[in-house]
Amino acid sequence: MTSSSSLQPLAGIRVLDLSRVLAGPMCAMALADFGADVIKVEHPARGDDTRDWGVRVGTRNTSYFNSANRNKRSITLDLQSEAGLQVARAIAVSSEQAKLLLPGVKSVAEQGFPGFDADTWGGLIAPLGTPQAVVDRLNQELKVALADPALQKKMLAAGAIVRYQDGATMKARLAHDYARWSKIASDKGISAQ
Fold first, then answer.
1. Structure confidence by residue, pLDDT tens digits, 182-191
2. Tell me, what's the pLDDT at 190?
3. 51 near 20, Cβ under 8 Å?
4. Distance of alpha carbon 174 from alpha carbon 168, whole angstroms
5. CA-CA distance, 193 to 178, in Å (whole number)?
6. pLDDT for res 1
7. Which of 5, 21, 55, 104 gives 20 to 30 Å between its CA and that of 61?
8. pLDDT tens across 78-126, in order?
9. CA angle at residue 42 from 120 to 66, to 5 degrees?
């Protein structure tokens, strides 16, 4: 990271870069260029594939690797092992729901940043104009499916917390998130281009 990172729009934001080769690393590099603390995770035996591509720079880097990974810190983790996955999850925990995923690991909010909650979520949204009877049936079936203990266990193992929310709750969540992230973007001078 550059010495002036505290003046950059993404200063104070941590990004876990689990990508490899080009597209993902370049996106994460752009975030690092704007001041984010990017932690690149590489394979423990070989590192990123691009460490062997292009002109050698020193003993471990190449011009190709350096061109897509500047301003990042690198660590090695075996993401095929449970231990490696636990470390990656611990680094990535930012949600208030951290205790469900990693008992004993403090969330960012619990580490001194009250109110911090940057989880990702997904939902099922029907197109505008969908008949109410269809929406009601989808809600009924979705509620049953999401309550299945086997599904919940499988999703939790993958790092996802499953819970049903009705349409009104989802609409309020969308409005809240839109307002919250719009304010952050405005405060940081970030605009859609």
1. 888 888 788 7
2. 82
3. no
4. 10
5. 17
6. 43
7. 5
8. 888 888 887 777 776 665 555 566 666 666 667 666 666 666 677 888 8
9. 105
pLDDT of residue 100: 63
Tokens describing residue 178: 């839109």
Question: In angstroms, rounded to a whole number, what is the distance separating the alpha carbons of residues 92 and 147?
Answer: 26
Mapping DSSP to helix (H, G, I), strand (E, B) and coil, where does residue 75 land?
A: strand
Q: Output the six-digit token pair for 100.
A: 């469900």
Half-sphere exposure of 9 (CA within 13 A, CB side): 12
d(CA 109, CA 95): 8
Query: Which is it for strands 37-42 and 14-17: parallel, antiparallel or unpaired?
Result: parallel
Region 69-83 average pLDDT: 84
Among residues 113, 52, 108, 43, the alpha carbon closest in space to that of 78 is found at: 43
**For 103, phi and psi rounded to 5 degrees?**
-55, 135
Task: Using pLDDT thresholds of 50, 70 and 90, give the confidence band for residue 129.
Answer: very high
- Tell me the C-alpha distance between 155 and 162, whole Å: 7
Pairing between β-strand 61-62 and β-strand 72-76 as defined by DSSP bridges: unpaired
The size of the chain, in residues, is 193
Three-state DSSP state, 111:
helix
| Rounded Cα distance, 15 and 104, in Å | 22
